[in-house]
Amino acid sequence: DIVMTQSPDSLAVSLGERATINCKSGRTILSSSNNKNYLAWYQQKPGQPPKLLIYWASTRESGVPVRFSGSGSGTDFTLTISSLQAEDVAVYFCQQYYTTPQTFGQGTKLEIK
Amino acid sequence: ELQLVESGGVVVQPGGSLRLSCAASGFRFSDYTMYWVRQAPGKGLELVSLLSWDGTATHYADSVKGRFTTSRDNTKNSLHLQMKSLRTEDSALYYCARDSGRNYAYYYFDLWGRGTQVTVSS
User: Fold this and answer.
1) Which of A4, B11, B53, B59 could form a disulfide with B119 if both were Cys (CB 3.0 to 4.6 A apart)?
2) Given this model, what pLDDT does residue A63 score?
3) Measured between alpha carbons, how far is A41 from A23 in angstroms, rounded to an integer?
4) What is chain B's alpha carbon radius of gyration, rounded to the nearest angstrom?
5) Is the CB of A55 less than 8 angstroms away from the CB of B100?
6) A8 close to A107: Cβ distance less than 8 angstroms
């Protein structure tokens, strides 16, 4: 199984500031056949199920605000929230789907400073 | 409306059995691989099982292999998880989730239920 490691485990950012969450895979999740990175990001607010934010490492799901963006390739990926809003307080998970079983990072808890 | 609704979670004693169900609506259930994902309190997400659209391909986490069995009824748009020999470490919120791709795609999960709570305790 591919191990996914997120950093940091928790993060406190001021409203309106940038938040950056990192995700590293144990091996490449970039496909040479289609040049796509098999990585997704999810947001989980307290008491709610995970919500898909980004897939193929950088494609925003429909309805996700543009302040959320994903980047990276190969083994190193980043989720960036350009201007933190109060409603962004949540735990964020990355997931690889390059191989089954799909595996998740341990999560990063994002709070307001 | 696209929806997954889990049910069947209860408090059960160690060694006991339980059957979870997930009712799907708003989409062609028979086209999609489905998953069970669990989350212990304050913990991360663990993929418990997957079942392909036609029921021919399965995968189980090592932690549940031999104890849990997933099945589906495409005529009733339902997914099930039969759990036996339950352990305290199986206590978690169990989510049903849909694959974003159709047929034998194994991609990211674009639809989640709200979960059903399983507590294994004496």
Assistant:
1) B11
2) 97
3) 10
4) 13
5) yes
6) no
Q: From the candidates B108, B110, B117, which should be mutated to test the interface with A, based on the most A CB atoms within 10 A?
A: B108
How far is residue B23 from each of residues A46, B7, B53, B97, measured CA to CA in Å? Answer: 23, 8, 15, 11
A55 and B108: CB-CB below 8 Å? yes
Angle at A37 between CA A35 and CA A39, to 5 degrees: 165
Cα dihedral sign, A44-A97-B90-B82: positive
pLDDT in tens, B59-109: 999 999 999 999 999 999 999 999 999 999 999 999 999 999 887 779 999
**Sequence-separated contacts (24+) of A31-36 with Cβ below 8 Å:** A31/A98
Residue A41: DSSP 8-state: E
| Best of B50, B109, B116 to mutate (most A CBs within 10 Å, chain A) | B109
Closest listed residue to residue B46, CA positions, set A75, A26, A50, A37: A50
Q: Are A25 and A3 in contact (CB under 8 A)?
A: yes
Retrieve residue B53's tokens.
């659209």
pLDDT confidence of residue A73: 98
Count how many Cα atoms sit within 13 Å of the Cα of residue A32 in the half-sphere of its side chain: 1
